[in-house]
Amino acid sequence: MLDDKNLYKTPISEYGEFGLIKHLTENFENINLSTSQSIGDDASILDAKNKKVVISTDLLIENVHFNLTYTPLKHLGYKSVVVGISDIVAMNAIPEQIMVSIAISNRFPVEALEEIYSGIQAACKRYRIDLVGGDTASSNLGLVINITSIGYADESEIVYRKGAKANDLLIASGDLGGAYFGLQVLERENTAFKSNPNLQPDLAGYSYLLERQLKPEARTDIKTLLKEMNILPTSMIDISDGLASEILHLSDQSNVGFTIYEDKVPMDNQVITTAEEFGINPVTGILNGGEDYELLFTISINDLDKIKNNPNFSIIGHATTEKNNVLITKGNTESIPLTAQGWDAYLKKKNKI
Amino acid sequence: MLDDKNLYKTPISEYGEFGLIKHLTENFENINLSTSQSIGDDASILDAKNKKVVISTDLLIENVHFNLTYTPLKHLGYKSVVVGISDIVAMNAIPEQIMVSIAISNRFPVEALEEIYSGIQAACKRYRIDLVGGDTASSNLGLVINITSIGYADESEIVYRKGAKANDLLIASGDLGGAYFGLQVLERENTAFKSNPNLQPDLAGYSYLLERQLKPEARTDIKTLLKEMNILPTSMIDISDGLASEILHLSDQSNVGFTIYEDKVPMDNQVITTAEEFGINPVTGILNGGEDYELLFTISINDLDKIKNNPNFSIIGHATTEKNNVLITKGNTESIPLTAQGWDAYLKKKNKI
């Protein structure tokens, strides 16, 4: 509903595989010194200098991770890069390259691929990333995108999931839940449109949520912000699968428990009003939702004064000695244990294995 | 027809995403010093020391790159690794890590994934590769595998597609066409089986071809062989898309032409007899077929004596000064120009974009 399909006309079969890759990537420019040789050979060459290489891969599947009914292809390209480099950022490293594999049905014209690549290029420019490789294939199936992300860090700067200690503070960057409630709005309007195609989608008043869902940003700025504050997190993860899932990962891998302060979980006003409209507790949405691409990390309690009034960060809890015991508390009410139930149910809903 | 589906029973939904990855990879052991941190965090950490990082990605799609009717899942896992690391080998680098993303339908049980991973593990052991990451997702579509391959080389050792000079000798490792004619046999038996399911496939006498198609090997040994012979190729590529395609790549990127000696193209006796059976010129099959995963490279004519009697290698032609003019000649007959037509037609047949 967001793209005018009539504008598209060039069949993919007009290009060979290599001609197509060349056509799609010819306007990409490499800017990082770590990129020694880019697209055009059997493999690409990277120069890590004295740094460690940080590498990750993400697979995005049509109708599992995205719905083309309401996802513009350019946004999808942009978001794919963000999803990929967010994993590198979560290690406190600097992302510098991506490789993109795309399988696409012949029902898509070349212009559709150009749209995806224009989004990829916009994200590469925004984040100073070089596109150094990839693969394309046809698919009778649907659209499939795989992003391999590569970054660099000094060994002493890398932050794992495993370093949290009891009494460390648990911090979230930005605000949470926007992407999840944006998805609820898009799904609702899509359902309404399917039952009555004359209905125009009513998206007014949800602009922040829709941007968080359709064009999220990766927090490549956090590494610098923390360095300026002279803080090195003790553990870190990106918030991609819902806050509950990420806290449980830190708990499991750091051998600590956590107590979460429900009323400290940061959220935009649109999240609050939209959650009310849908009859969902906003914190439940944040715990079990996902796709925030904010960072969740722990710091030593000795660093409290450096961060406590910084508007970029919210202290949402603290680590405890009891491994895997994650409690959520609100004011004087009883603490409720947070289990893996939440995100597993969410994953099933999202049809992930 | 090669797997007994009744043996499989555990639904994938019994595992969460993270539980599933953990289950599938728990028996993998890392052996390379360049693997600093493997699966289990947002990203993996690699240590390139003073070497360059060589990296590539390959996307394999059901019914485009493989047919599960006659491809055992374990072989598919093995072959996926071979396809991936062959690109690293083609840069004269040593592959040391892979990352594997798999999208799989819920119609597959956990045991099917275990079969794929057992093949991946067998290849990892055979080639001393560490599995350092990956992603899994469900797919309503079909089986999708993306392999990211990482290797290392000193800068002075890396061989590109672009270094061939006029009068260089063109060399192929091993023998060619086996995988292509193996595919023809499998397709023929599959067609016969579909028209009469009581027919047993007749695969006797094609064992070498079937092994080349279903369980190819990557030529990780060539780098050492050449080093012992004191030869550094001037250009190199792996033979994955058919010999014609690869020669045209070397020609294009090195700004040279080539003359190919048709009767020097190396082939096994099963290729000759099976080509005859199918009424196909074996060299035509080799030029336009693919999936040999042998190496094609050029060396200086000064190195002729070092290689000319080595049974691992065949001198199949030489480079000329005329860029993009690739001719194939047989004895005293006229030279025929080799165009991109061949492999483009092949790609269309294979449904690649």
How is this structure best described in words?
Chain A is of the alpha+beta class. Helices cover 34% and strands 23% of the residues of chain A. The first copy, chain A, is built from 11 helices and 13 strands. In chain A, the strands form 3 sheets. Chain A has a 7-stranded mixed sheet, sandwiched between helices. In chain A, β4, α3 and β5 form a beta-alpha-beta unit. In chain A, α2 packs parallel to α3, α4 crosses α5 and α4 packs across α8. The longest helix of chain A has 18 residues. Chain A is globular.
Secondary structure layout plus pairing:
Two copies of one chain form a homodimer.
Chain A: H1 17-25, E1 35-37, E2 44-46, E3 52-61, H2 73-89, E4 94-104, H3 110-127, E5 130-138, E6 144-153, E7 169-173, H4 178-195, H5 207-214, H6 222-228, E8 235-239, H7 243-254, E9 257-261, H8 269-278, H9 282-288, E10 294-299, H10 304-307, E11 313-320, E12 326-329, E13 336-337, H11 341-349
Parallel strand pairs in A: 4-5, 9-12
Antiparallel strand pairs in A: 1-2, 3-6, 4-6, 7-10, 7-11, 8-10, 9-11, 12-13
Helix pairs in contact in A: 2-3, 4-5, 4-8
